[in-house]
Backbone:
């Protein structure tokens, strides 16, 4: 598969006004920004959105070791991040959905620590670091918000590492429950949501083999715990999924 790189859309400031084109009208405002910002403060953020970038499936937003000069807010669609060590296959480290910020892995070394690739048609807002520095000086609550986001990202990675000690069926159940929780936080259904990752991506993220992921998902579908149709995940039995995640329930079909 040939990877292609994004082409910038026009700078936001040069675009004609459209509803939902700026931070003040964006439905994801509460996810990307501190909720206590006033409307005038949010309007001032529009000038910091240097570019909006549209990616098609498989297009790359940034690659590992690229110069780091911006962070990115996912406006629509989804991306995966991957980390690659020399002579080893790239490992999926996260999936990023609307409202997520990404690009923090390069803050300390001025180089991106991962590669970000679109899983579907995706649009992101580009926030240049020099503009962000000026903004956080003006609005300290934004700096606090970004610190909180970086902290939550570190906790997420620590949990992902800790989960490698759990049984495979627990890890897959926790993954589906976590995705449901993230979509619910955006106001979407927690029972039915889109998941553009392949089984191979899920296996890489959770540290399992593709065969194991396929077997576990097949078993969950057969037991009517989840349903999958056209990349749509539907949680049919949340209680059963919670029980599997906690280790309290171990259906025979999952360990056969």
Residues:
């Amino acid at each position: 598969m040939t990877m292609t790189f994004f082409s910038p859309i026009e700078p936001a400031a040069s675009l004609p006004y459209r509803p939902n084109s700026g931070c003040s009208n964006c439905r994801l405002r509460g996810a990307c920004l501190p909720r206590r910002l006033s409307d005038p403060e949010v309007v001032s953020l529009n000038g910091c959105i240097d570019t909006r970038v549209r990616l098609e499936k498989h297009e790359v937003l940034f690659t590992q070791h690229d110069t780091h000069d911006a962070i990115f807010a996912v406006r629509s669609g989804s991306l995966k991040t991957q980390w690659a060590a020399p002579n080893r296959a790239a490992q999926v480290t996260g999936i990023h959905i609307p409202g997520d910020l990404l690009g923090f892995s390069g803050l300390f070394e001025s180089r991106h620590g991962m590669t970000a690739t679109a899983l579907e048609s995706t649009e992101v807002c580009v926030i240049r670091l020099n503009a962000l520095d000026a903004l956080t000086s003006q609005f300290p609550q934004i700096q606090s918000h970004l610190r909180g986001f970086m902290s939550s990202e570190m906790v997420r990675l620590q949990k992902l590492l800790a989960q490698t000690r759990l049984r495979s069926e627990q890890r897959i159940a926790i993954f589906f429950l976590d995705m449901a929780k993230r979509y619910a936080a955006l106001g979407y259904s927690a029972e039915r949501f889109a998941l553009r990752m392949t089984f191979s991506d899920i296996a890489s993220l959770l540290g399992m083999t593709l065969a194991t992921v396929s077997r576990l998902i097949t078993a969950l579908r057969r037991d009517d715990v989840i349903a999958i149709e056209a990349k749509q995940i539907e949680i049919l039995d949340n209680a059963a999924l919670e029980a599997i995640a906690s280790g309290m329930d171990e259906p025979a079909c999952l360990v056969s």
Remarks:
- The first strand starts at residue 7 and ends at 8.
- Residues 42 and 86 are 43 Å apart (CA to CA).
- The chain has nine helices and twelve strands.
- The radius of gyration is 19 Å.
